[in-house]
Amino acid sequence: MKALLGRVxxxxxxxxxxxxxxxxxxxxxxxxxxxxSSDVEQAREAIERGDYxxxxxxxERYTRREPEDADAWNWLGFSRRKAGALEAAFVAYRRAxxxxxxxxGAHEYVGExxxxxxxxxxxxxxxxxxxxxxxxxxxxxxDLAAAIAxxxxxxx
Length: 156
Description:
Blueprint: H1 2-22, H2 29-49, H3 52-65, H4 70-82, H5 86-99, H6 104-116, H7 120-133, H8 139-152
Helix pairs in contact: 1-2, 2-3, 3-4, 4-5, 4-6, 5-6, 6-7, 6-8, 7-8
């Protein structure tokens, strides 16, 4: 699980770095990219250490500057959920899905949050959404299906 989390965090960092490169020129762009990479890199490190409150704080600061970054909102939801702030996590996941309704990571993680809240039906709805988004299968669909199976078996 820790290796999977590391891969997912690396994917987030890579995607954000690619977005930063695609943003183009402008006089303030280098400073903005430095802040982005600094906050996101520090958040990644905090997640790897299990310091979810720190990661959430960094991602909150980042999403105030970059409110249309669905990946960052998804990771903010993840960090909040892992920190025990389930309602705040739902707010972040809803924002990620409002920006990108096909965000597979957000569907997976909000489904896991619904399981933590005891809302099995909503978790299954997000699994169905993932089935529609990746009918041939994808990692997020498999992970949420496994979490639902554990939930059904009475194992968190």
